[in-house]
Design a protein that fits this description.
70% of the residues lie in helices and 0% in strands. By secondary structure, it is mainly α. Helix 1 packs antiparallel against helix 2 and helix 2 runs parallel beside helix 4.
Length: 149
């Protein structure tokens, strides 16, 4: 099983984005059911620093989906790095990050205040006007979802 997960994990870095996206979907599904992806948490954290925005987004996604399995507080250790992506250079990555934050807040209540603070202070003026309104809506929605938890 773990060999299979390791093989799928490597596909996250495939040059073909369709292959990588399918791997992401598979690992996301598995992460909802078991902690089989959690052993890769350090590699997921490293993905946040990738020059490739797709790889950053995949890392953000799988970190969020593994928050419920995080008994070693690995996400707590990297939350500041994670929250920087609220204003990622790529607005699409920023939007994904923002949409994932309620998942982390749900399973990591000790991080809620950090997440709320980061969302409230996010400077979205770095984006074009067309994206600013979308990012702003995402932030408002995430804040509402987190407040309900």
């Amino acid at each position: 099983m773990l060999v299979n997960i390791a093989e799928i994990f490597e596909l996250l870095f495939d040059k073909n984005n369709n292959v990588a996206y399918k791997a992401l979907q598979e690992l996301q599904r598995k992460s909802e059911e078991t902690d089989c992806v959690y052993p890769f948490i350090d590699r997921l954290s490293d993905m946040l620093e990738s020059d490739n925005s797709y790889i950053r987004t995949r890392g953000l996604t799988l970190l969020a989906y593994n928050a419920k399995w995080d008994k070693e507080y690995k996400i707590d250790e990297i939350i500041d790095e994670y929250l920087k992506h609220i204003t990622d250079v790529k607005p699409i990555t920023a939007r994904q990050c923002i949409k994932l934050l309620p998942i982390i807040a749900k399973y990591k209540p000790e991080l809620r205040n950090d997440i709320l603070f980061a969302l409230n202070k996010a400077n979205i003026s770095i984006y074009d006007d067309s994206m600013q309104s979308l990012v702003c809506k995402d932030i408002q929605k995430a804040l509402k979802e987190i407040e309900k938890l």
